[in-house]
Amino acid sequence: MHQEKILNTPAIRRMPTYLHKLLKMQSEGKVSVSSTELAEYMNIELIVVRKDISLTGISGQRRVGYDVNELIRYIKAYLGWEEKISAVLVGAGSLGTALLGYNDFEHYGFSIEWVFDSSPDKIGRDVYGRTVQDINDMESCFKGQHPEIAVICVSNTAAQKVADKLVAAGIRYIWNFANVSLQVPRGVVVQREVIAGGLAMLAVRRKFEKNMCCEQKDADNTGENIP
Amino acid sequence: MHQEKILNTPAIRRMPTYLHKLLKMQSEGKVSVSSTELAEYMNIELIVVRKDISLTGISGQRRVGYDVNELIRYIKAYLGWEEKISAVLVGAGSLGTALLGYNDFEHYGFSIEWVFDSSPDKIGRDVYGRTVQDINDMESCFKGQHPEIAVICVSNTAAQKVADKLVAAGIRYIWNFANVSLQVPRGVVVQREVIAGGLAMLAVRRKFEKNMCCEQKDADNTGENIP
Known about the structure:
Number of strands of chain A: 9
Shape of chain A: globular
Distance between the termini of chain A: 61 Å
CATH architecture of the largest domain in chain A: 3-Layer(aba) Sandwich
Largest sheet of chain A: 7 strands, mixed
Oligomer: homodimer
Order of helices and strands of chain A: HEHHEHEHEEEHEHEEH
CATH topology of the largest domain in chain A: Rossmann fold
């Protein structure tokens, strides 16, 4: 709770993107990467990349760049992604299906092992290799094993009930895609994912560009340079 | 480009969440809202809420709180969401379908009016009231009208080709859900959406909590207070 001041949110949100790029470079046999290369890929300033990377605690090697394997290790350690984290997903609709098909999760150690839904149309179906199970059978499906993270992809109206069930099953970390503010006991961490957040970013950049254009136009229209 | 330093990314990403809450309050007939109420809903500190809201330029009314209708207007104006923005979505798979079903977009003036795909399985299908059209017919489908924003929901391998097509059709704002860094001409704005960014946030909060627990445990284990 109240970690907004402590956590560097934009930097943390960028970490999987660095990781995605670095894992691709690793698979192509590249051994080192410069911050300039990463800045170009991320489309952000060099100084931002350097600050992001310094968060992981890796020591910079200005001349030769960073060792790809080492940087991957540091980013994974920073995020706590060195080991497998097992997860459960509730809601096998279109968003849930999209998340189950997201290839990068396995590289992050994030393993969605259980999928639940309440709809008879979905129960029993196979989604990317997982069988959708009845949410009412959740406790018995876990059988002593215990997912650490839950992903909620159900409707806004169903989300609180699902969260209550998950918390009752002992889950303490919830990645919530429903557009509701979940009420959970102290000690349970909810990361609310508002898909329109990215649209807001694009919207502000659009407005910014439009204003820039207007200012430019105004400057062009002073008449001073018009022949 | 290079706006990371200028834009308050976390605050902007939170704007749709405020808006979602305020629109709900509006529909319930509530006329005013306090920053405390918003802080509780957002699960962030009061000072962060006040800073976020001050970004919109609204003048605070400490005693009575904010006027709900006015705050909605200010947030919409801040994001440039006062008027309808027409959009095209490419890729009618599970993620594209999830986005087409996202109810809040209409309240933000964000109107996805065209949907394209290249797969014969999908072309002609109805998705939440839009007919999926063949991407090869894109130019003729626009017929003089012009979407301002494009949403890319195709595979990583297809994304660059799709982006090229969209740019050639005159689109300057791209919301990209494919996990690739798109190459676009100067003047085209790409907002890359990395779904794992939220997972990274949850992961860091998880690590943070675990470390806190360990520290707490260590403190408990000094033996000084053990009877």
